[in-house]
Amino acid sequence: MQRVVIIGAGQAGVQAAVTLRSEGYDGALTLVGEEIYPPYQRPPLSKAYLSGELVRERLFLKPDAFYSETACELRLGVAARQIDRAAKTVSLSDGTSLAYDRLLLATGTRVRKLPLPGASLPGVYYLRGIDDVDLLRPEMRAGARLVVVGAGFIGLEVAAVAAKHGLHVTVLEAASRVMARAVSPQLSAFYEREHRAHSVVFRFGAALEAIEGADHVEAVRVQGEHVPADFVLVGVGVVPNCEIAQAAGLVCDNGIAVDEYTATSDPDIFAAGDCTSHPAFAGGRVRLESVQNAIDQAKHAALAMLGKPVPYREVPWFWSDQYDLKLQIAGIARPGDVTVLRGLLDSRKFSVFHLRDGVIAAVETVNAAPDYIIGRKLIAARAIIAPERLADISVPVKSLA
Ligand SMILES: Cc1cc2nc3c(=O)[nH]c(=O)nc-3n(C[C@H](O)[C@H](O)[C@H](O)COP(=O)(O)OP(=O)(O)OC[C@H]3O[C@@H](n4cnc5c(N)ncnc54)[C@H](O)[C@@H]3O)c2cc1C
Asked: Hey, is 391 helix, strand or coil?
């Protein structure tokens, strides 16, 4: 193999480049990225970078020297437009094309836009990249009225930063609780209470009708009522970037469909990160939006491209920072799981274990890193532990492993 092309210069793309080189690949390596920035981490965008505690330089995943030292050619500000699978070439937006022996698609996701009248008014923001935060940050002035649409991780992280900065925050959510897609009802209730304690106002079951304003957003109309806004942050999920894969005839199903070795339906094309749907650790197929998945799947993709396939079976994990609360989640909770609370909600340091047929399937921890670390091990081992023992904080968590 002489030529590897990676489309998407994000978390997964750069990890694949790192692993290819560390595994001894010495052929040509090109990383194509639509953004003008070298690969960077997104998690701080809605946390420390938004709040101004982290400078931009700290976002970049590798120093510039990494790319020259590893002979990884960066083609930034250029989008891949079309894959010709027969000729094994990718054509780029600058009119050039690249030949490949193995191709990795690490194209990530893009934000889902609000399909509402007024949604493109100035003052309506989304959050996916560095440029989005650079536009949003000047709006974060004490006393300003922020309406957050969507009580998912990003919406709530922005709400937390804004509340800490003295803004008036209203969160509009279609579901009946916060982070409903991802966490247990206990955790939703806990986080809602924490946000309310910081004066965040919630409206659940919110059916949005329009964003209103003459030449700038002034309000959001919800069920006939006008919620005043100086600016709006929309966090209603993402859409996988799989159009070029689809156009090339690759199987896509809520993302680019890959097998447990990260191969697509073309044996020379692999995919990793947010853009993929893949066999899940706990059965079925999933598309995950997490740093863990981007990194681990990219490592597996690099190995598979080098002819050393290893099945991808890592336990998924994720985190979110809101106020002084570190939420860490391992495994994937499902409706119907039996939940076991370990610790006291009021102590702001506790865990919720999820049992499925008696087996530990997931754990959500708040300010409880040891529970999270042990929980991951228990999930990987498909451990069975009596709920009374899990709940008993006089039993040291280490002794559960
Ligand atoms: C604000 C925010 C906060 C987050 N917080 C957390 C967190 O706390 N914990 C956590 O685990 N995860 C978090 N995530 C999710 C995490 O950042 C993603 O899961 C991760 O970045 C996925 O990596 P990726 O490489 O698959 O995609 P990305 O990092 O999105 O990279 C994909 C890249 O491909 C480029 N691209 C797309 N199409 C093309 C094309 N045709 N040609 C060239 N380039 C293309 C895109 O422009 C992008 O730069 C957060 C995400 C956001 C946006």
From this structure: helix
Query: Which one-letter amino acid corresponds to residue 82?
Result: Q
Residue type, 139: E
Report, as an integer, the average pLDDT of 81-92: 98
The identity of residue 19, as a single letter, is: T
pLDDT tens by residue, 212-246: 999 999 999 999 999 999 999 999 999 999 999 99
Coil, helix or strand at residue 23: coil
Structure tokens at 377: 């091990």
* Residue 382 CA to its chain's centroid (Å): 25
β-pair type (208-212, 201-203):
unpaired
Q: Is 316 in the pocket of ligand 1 (CB under 6 A)?
A: no
143: burial class by Cβ within 10 Å (0-12, 13-18, 19+)?
exposed
Distance, C-alpha 221 to centroid of its chain: 29
All structural domains of the chain, each given as residue ranges with its CATH number in brackets, are 3-110+238-305 (3.50.50.60), 113-234 (3.50.50.60), 324-400 (3.30.390.30)
**3 state DSSP class of 68:** helix
369 φ/ψ angles, rounded to the nearest 5 degrees: -55, -40
DSSP tag of 86: T
126 alpha carbon to ligand 1 midpoint, in Å? 14
Q: Does residue 319 line the site of ligand 1, with CB under 6 A?
A: yes
| Cα-to-centroid distance, 296 and ligand 1 (Å) | 14
Looking at the predicted structure, is the pLDDT value of residue 400 above 90? no
Instruction: Assess whether the C-beta atom of 42 lies below 6 angstroms from ligand 1.
Output: yes
